[in-house]
Amino acid sequence: MLELRHRGVSPGPGGAVAPPPPEGVAAGGDHEAESTSDKETDIDDRYGDLDSRTDSDIPEIPPSSDRTPEILKKALSGLSSRWKNWWIRGILTLTMISLFFLIIYMGSFMLMLLVLGIQVKCFHEIITIGYRVYRSYELPWFRTLSWYFLLCVNYFFYGETVADYFATFVQREEQLQFLIRYHRFISFALYLAGFCMFVLSLVKKHYRLQFYMFAWTHVTLLITVTQSHLVIQNLFEGMIWFLVPISSVICNDITAYLFGFFFGRTPLIKLSPKKTWEGFIGGFFSTVVFGFIAAYVLSKYQYFVCPVEYRSDVNSFVTECEPSELFQLQSYSLPPFLKAVLRRERVSLYPFQIHSIALSTFASLIGPFGGFFASGFKRAFKIKDFANTIPGHGGIMDRFDCQYLMATFVHVYITSFIRGPNPSKVLQQLLVLQPEQQLNIYKTLKMHLIEKGILQPTLKV
Amino acid sequence: MNELRLRAVRDPDAPPVEKESEPEVKADGETASDSENRAEAAPLVTSADDTPEVLNRALSNLSSRWKNWWVRGILTLAMIAFFFIIIYLGPMVLMMIVMCVQIKCFQEIITIGYNVYHSYELPWFRTLSWYFLLCVNYFFYGETVTDYFFTLVQREEPLRILSKYHRFISFTLYLIGFCMFVLSLVKKHYRLQFYMFGWTHVTLLIVVTQSHLVIHNLFEGMIWFIVPISCVICNDIMAYMFGFFFGRTPLIKKIVRMYPFQIHSIALSTFASLIGPFGGFFASGFKRAFKIKDFANTIPGHGGIMDRFDCQYLMATFVNVYIASFIRGPNPSKLIQQFMTLRPEQQLHIFSTLKSHLIDKGMLTDATED
After folding, report:
1. How far is B349 from chain A (nearest CA, A)?
2. At what angle do helices A423-432 and B344-360 cross, to 10 degrees?
3. B357 touches chain A (CB under 8 A)
4. Torsion of CA A359, A363, A369, A374, to 10 degrees
5. What is the mean pLDDT of residues B240-253?
6. How far apart are the CA of B194 and the nearest CA of chain A, in angstroms?
7. Can you tell me the ipTM of this complex?
8. CA pair distance A359, A399, nearest whole angstrom
9. Which end of chain A has less Cβ packing within 10 Å, N or C?
10. What is the pLDDT, as a whole number, of residue A292?
11. Which range, B28-32, B41-45, B325-329, is most confident?
12. Cα–Cα distance for residue pair B207/B198, rounded to 1 Å
């Protein structure tokens, strides 16, 4: 059973025929419909209790209202609907990119809010799908509990982040001190309250549904919330660690689509029939090159390269620092084959550019699996898009499905290969120790610093 | 449709868990209850009586109600005795036992998922579930070992490398499983496969993470392992007894000398009695939802391992959070290690902040620099 969406697409059986490529399929989105499952009942439906109902039991999503703004509609009224859709999609793409640049300009804090907003919207989209699949609207407490759990997990993560990064800011306020010190306990208590409410809300005839929705909520939290916090931690490491991965994924989306459009011939994976090997490989190379260049451009500016800090003297958040050696030009000698090609002995690069190759490679080769996962999910639950938030593109989740894996990878990459421990966190923990332990550590540190020549023995620092 | 187990006849059973002896025939709100009959076909009816022959013979003349009571009682004592033995054997053995319990619980829950979704023929599913179990365990054990056996790890070269890049290696292993899952998606089975993926992950979240918290607690000191677990067991047994008899205990009013830990143990026991049972209710709801009487039939008279450990999980997490919040400070040697890897300016900054902090506290005066 297909939902037929009207998104300014051609009339007729909207998805029954595989729509032609320009029908707004950026490589990241997967909008072809299941053309073959009109008649046959999925074997899925014969299994399990819920799925043993026929397709007609899945509530039909009413054709959603066309969210294209009037302006656009009028401007494009002359074109055929196929091109109209292409244009809508293109314009929205440009709008989103501009919005992105604008927020970058406004700073890390705004970016953090943006990430939070996106996370909440993605959570909402996935939970709504769950509602519909399980017709859970009438389950007691369910909506409240889902949002409550979202709140708890966010509270836990934001607390850890704030405490880590803004230790100096936090030290000053008494109430915050208490909240930070017992943060884990408070978060756990909040979560437990939700857990107990869930248990108390179990209703005799709805047990299984309620458990399904509980699990659905938790898996969604695991996917969206934890990874969005990894994004924010990456962001705090330096805006470049946020920008380069995200733009690599976007670039891969777009270039894979373009390569697929012009050169596509061999299908890549059954799950997404419109992806092709040519697109995949072309996208890979373009993304690596793009990442390399973007890394070069962004490494020059402190604004992108420095971690966010709170300076008590100016009472604000600043991004100023001495750039680490990752962001200072180094001279590398070229391997022989490149020497011949470029006719140069050495080249000056930022070390970060080498890292950006690793990041772009991941974005092109493994990132798409996040997209395939989302496609599989949409097929499993017979939906065309996660939601209809962005005209021409679908829901927020549709645009961010590849980003999630990327965020986790970048975080793991940073903690494994780049970053040492976080200094404010070390300080935080030091201050929590017993005074005698602090004294011991003080003496050890002093000896170490004097040895290293960082501290002069006679100088009172 | 319920399995009617041979031991279903008993009544005075421990807390709320066992009240559902009446078959729950009504659908759970989904109209497809008839298919549930199909869904719970043969595989779930594991009515084989696992009671050892010895016991069977010894109790053969009693009526089946009392026979069951005795079976249950004897097995309880057996489990408690076993518990004491492994405590005697030490933390390492305990850690292994926790690991085995965790694996068995995981297997029990996954098996239920199989049965509910007829997932036997889903390609790769079993392999992938066990693979994910392996990955998550590798990740957690690596972190635990690195934390607690720091010096040992630093000495051995291969261990050092494994620990330095531990997160990256774990993540890569997980990713491989994730990609295998995506590649294993089969056209007509998408939904089932996603359900099972979700099922596996929630099970991992519940079972594996909390068993590792148990191990963390254990490493704090065996008392942090034994007291909470015994509290929950005791609460189980006592709540049952009190449901049977009514008792009154006089309060003791005099000055007592105590270990400070006893105060903490009051908090632990309170949690075990008031909130711990919610874990049991959760498991009961789960069993009702999927129309099973027990998670499995591993322990005669008791059901599966998961049946015995359902309340323990919440407890383990609570104890871990409790220790982290109220008891343990950060590990000083680890802090020093972390300090050494910072950049010079950061080290200097931290050093001067620490210094002014110590001077404030009066632990240090400018004149006592040695």
Report:
1. 9
2. 20
3. yes
4. 120
5. 61
6. 7
7. 0.71
8. 19
9. C
10. 92
11. B325-329
12. 14
Q: Which residues of B touch A322 (CB under 8 A)?
A: 345
Tell me, what amino acid is at A271? L
pLDDT per residue as tens digits for the range A189-200 = 899 899 888 888
H-only helix segments in chain B: 33-39, 53-58, 64-89, 91-117, 125-148, 150-155, 157-164, 166-183, 190-203, 210-220, 223-244, 260-274, 276-289, 305-322, 332-340, 344-360
Within 10 angstroms of residue A317's Cβ, the number of other Cβ atoms is 15
Pick from B29, B185, B354: CB nearest A376 = B185
**DSSP annotation of A135:** T
Model confidence band, residue B133 (pLDDT cutoffs 50, 70, 90): very high
Helices (H) then strands (E): counts for chain A: 18, 6
Contacts of B201 in chain A (CB under 8 A): 219, 222
Interface touch A438/B354, C-beta < 8 Å: yes
For B133, the token pair is 């179990």
- pLDDT beneath 70: ranges in chain A: 1-79, 82, 135-138, 140, 163-172, 310-312, 314-316, 419-422, 424, 458-461
CA of A382 vs chain B CAs: smallest distance (Å): 9
> What are the extents of the domains in chain A?
108-139+203-420, 424-456
pLDDT confidence bin for B194, thresholds 50/70/90:
confident
For the entire predicted model, the pTM comes to 0.72
Using one digit for the tens of pLDDT, what is the confidence trace for B196-221? Answer: 888 899 888 888 888 888 888 888 78
Task: Count the residues in chain B.
Answer: 370
Q: What is the pLDDT of residues B155-190, one digit of tens each?
A: 777 887 787 788 888 888 888 888 888 888 877 777
Are residues A290 and A353 in contact, defined by beta-carbon separation less than 8 angstroms? Answer: no
CB contact under 8 A, B189 and A413: no
Contacts of B338 in chain A (CB under 8 A): 420-421, 426
Give the span between the Cα atoms of A228 and A119, in whole angstroms.
6
Question: Letter for the amino acid at B287?
Answer: K
- Residue among B190, B281, B330 minimizing CB distance to A379: B190
Q: Which one of B128, B180, B195, B209 would you mutate to disrupt binding with A, by most A Cβ within 10 Å of its Cβ?
A: B195
Closest-CA residue to A74 (of A64, A60, A88): A88
A50 contacts in chain B (CB < 8 Å): 30, 32
Query: Which residues fall within 8 angstroms of residue A404, CB to CB, at 6 or more apart?
Result: A223, A224, A227, A370
Give me the DSSP letters along B112-172: HHHHHHTGGGSTTHHHHHHHHHHHHHHHHHHHHHHHHTHHHHHHSHHHHHHHHTHHHHHHH
Cβ contact A195:B276 at 8 Å: no
* Nearest CA distance, B148 vs chain A (angstrom): 17
Query: Which residue type, as a one-letter code, is found at position A163?
Result: A
